Amino acid sequence: MPSEPYQHHLLIIQDDKGHREFILENPIYSIGRDPKSDIRLISQFVSRHHATLKQLTHKDGSIYYRIEDGDAKGKPSANGLLINGRRLHAHDLNNEDEIVFGPKVRAVYYRLERDAILTIPPDEFDITLISPNMIGEPEDDDDQPENHDGLDDDD
């Protein structure tokens, strides 16, 4: 039975505070300088409500995130967003997209995907039988080079 791939959405922020990682699971995130932001940016060069991340669903059922400039009500930030070197108001994020919020304030988005691992109980009849004939003395290892120099191995 095939299983759905397992996805992680990760946002790595680099700002005045350093390097921080956020696993994205919620349907919406506020990003900005405001202490009440879900993802707080530490820099005087970003807006209090700089951007909004929204979780959306593709037709195939897979999840992705869209980043939009400004707050959830549509009020834009002062500096805007630079995504992969282009000034954009909104963008559906792809793996390794880079978002620049301001000088020395950036984020990289990662969508990590792997096949789900099925965990089923072992079959109670799946056992290995060992015949007594299969157990014997180990054989000598013939692959070892012989010492023909006339000296003992201890010399």
Description:
The chain is mainly beta and 155 residues long. Helix content is 0%, strand content 42%. The protein is built from no helices and eleven strands. It has strands spanning 5-15, 18-24, 28-32, 39-40, 51-57, 63-69, 81-83, 86-88, 90-92, 97-102, 105-115. The strands form two sheets. It has a six-stranded antiparallel β-sheet, with no helix packed on it. Strand 7 (81-83) and strand 8 form a beta hairpin. The radius of gyration is 29 Å and the shape is elongated. The N and C termini lie far apart (63 Å).
Describe the structure using short key phrases.
155 residues; mainly beta; six-stranded antiparallel sheet; five-stranded mixed sheet; elongated
Compact description:
With 155 residues, this protein is mainly beta. It contains no helices and 11 strands.
Question: What's the arrangement of secondary structure elements?
Answer:
Layout: E1 5-15, E2 18-24, E3 28-32, E4 39-40, E5 51-57, E6 63-69, E7 81-83, E8 86-88, E9 90-92, E10 97-102, E11 105-115
Parallel strand pairs: 3-4
Antiparallel strand pairs: 1-2, 1-11, 3-5, 5-6, 6-9, 7-8, 7-10, 10-11
Largest sheet: 6 strands, antiparallel
Strand content: 35-45%
Count of helical regions: 0
Radius of gyration: 29 Å
| First-residue to last-residue Cα separation | 63 Å
What's the multimeric state? Answer: single chain
How many strand elements? 11
Q: What would the average pLDDT be, to the nearest integer?
A: 83
Shape annotation: elongated
Taking pLDDT < 50 over at least 5 consecutive residues as the criterion, the unreliable ranges are none
List the helices and strands in order: EEEEEEEEEEE
Structural class: mainly beta
Helix content: under 10%
Strand order of the largest sheet: 2-1-11-10-7-8
